[in-house]
Amino acid sequence: MVNWSGSYTMLTINADDHDMIMGFHKPTDEKRMVVVLPRDLYTDWLSTKPLESMGLMRQFPAEQLRTT
Questions:
Q1: CA-CA distances (angstroms) from residue 46 to 12, 41, 51, 59, 60?
Q2: Is 18 part of any domain?
Q3: Into how many domains does the chain fold?
Q4: What confidence tens digit (pLDDT) does each residue in 10-33 have?
Q5: Cα end-to-end span (Å), the chain
Q6: Which residues contact 46 (CB under 8 A, 6 or more apart)?
Q7: For 35-65, how does the pLDDT look when each residue is reduced to its tens digit (9 = 90+)?
Q8: Cβ(12)–Cβ(34) under 8 Å?
Q9: Whole-model pTM?
């Protein structure tokens, strides 16, 4: 019998200069945002070598995000 377990990781990057994220923390605190991977990069992400993966981790454009 196999017992399956699920897990996940949230990757974050620095967002000190991100137009939206910079307003969420005190001015002296480091700003971080979750990496949002666009669908057209899924295959690249799954086939990229770990040392090259940072090139796919970018700030998601503020104009494509919204808050409620």
A1: 18, 9, 13, 19, 19
A2: no
A3: 1
A4: 999 999 999 998 888 888 899 999
A5: 45
A6: none
A7: 999 999 999 999 999 899 999 999 999 999 8
A8: yes
A9: 0.72
